Amino acid sequence: MPHPILYSFRRCPYAMRARMGLLLAKRSVMLREILLKNKPADMLAASKKGTVPVLILNDGSVIDESLDIMQWALQQNDPANLLCIDNPSIQSDIDALIATCDGEFKGWLDKYKYADRHPDFPEEYYRQQGMHFLNVLEERLSTSNYLLGTAPTLADYAIFPFIRQFAHVDRQWFEQSSYPKIQDWLTKHLESDVFSKVMAKYPLWLDNHESFLFE
Ligand SMILES: N[C@@H](CCC(=O)N[C@@H](CS)C(=O)NCC(=O)O)C(=O)O
């Protein structure tokens, strides 16, 4: 049985979360590393959106949303119960947190990251807006080790790549900021085996059309 194909870009937070979902579900795929400035025709033929990640299943169907890829994998095998299948109330908290991350927070994150392209306000303004979400996370992490309790859920893995980006915009600011719980939580994820595996470097697919087993 051939493996599904995953078009991915190492540094994309959406692709990171998809790779983590696949890894945590122990779902092997053939990884094709791309560059956003030179997208392979095969990837665009599969998904016209032109975003990564894109997963092509063996039956030819395509999943081109990172969260859908995580869910597809974890619905088949979720040894750590990241989807919290027996707890609809936690599930709706997970969905709500991820929706805020991908919606409002991501909007401010992009403006903070590229403040020079958004001269209406200074960088600090965009950071301040993004901090509303950080405040919510800090409060949650003040009462438990993970966002939804004592164990990680889909929300932790889906959200931390974006907090990592936020922290990287101005590391000095982040390190002295009043977010000690987020700092610990982020460090824990960044130092995890899962993260170091998903951040392994692969040669570009377009260089020699070689996919790599990702498992
Ligand atoms: N909603 C999509 C967003 C994916 C996305 O926007 N990925 C970015 C890279 S981080 C991308 O591919 N952008 C296209 C481009 O820059 O050309 C998902 O969750 O998969």
Automatic annotation (TrEMBL):
<dbReference type="InterPro" id="IPR040079">
    <property type="entry name" value="Glutathione_S-Trfase"/>
</dbReference>
<dbReference type="InterPro" id="IPR004045">
    <property type="entry name" value="Glutathione_S-Trfase_N"/>
</dbReference>
<dbReference type="InterPro" id="IPR010987">
    <property type="entry name" value="Glutathione-S-Trfase_C-like"/>
</dbReference>
<dbReference type="InterPro" id="IPR036282">
    <property type="entry name" value="Glutathione-S-Trfase_C_sf"/>
</dbReference>
<dbReference type="InterPro" id="IPR036249">
    <property type="entry name" value="Thioredoxin-like_sf"/>
</dbReference>
<dbReference type="InterPro" id="IPR050983">
    <property type="entry name" value="GST_Omega/HSP26"/>
</dbReference>
<dbReference type="Pfam" id="PF13410">
    <property type="entry name" value="GST_C_2"/>
</dbReference>
<feature type="domain" description="GST C-terminal">
    <location>
        <begin position="87"/>
        <end position="215"/>
    </location>
</feature>
<dbReference type="Pfam" id="PF13417">
    <property type="entry name" value="GST_N_3"/>
</dbReference>
<feature type="domain" description="GST N-terminal">
    <location>
        <begin position="2"/>
        <end position="81"/>
    </location>
</feature>
<dbReference type="GO" id="GO:0005737">
    <property type="term" value="C:cytoplasm"/>
</dbReference>
<protein>
    <recommendedName>
        <fullName>Glutathione S-transferase</fullName>
    </recommendedName>
</protein>
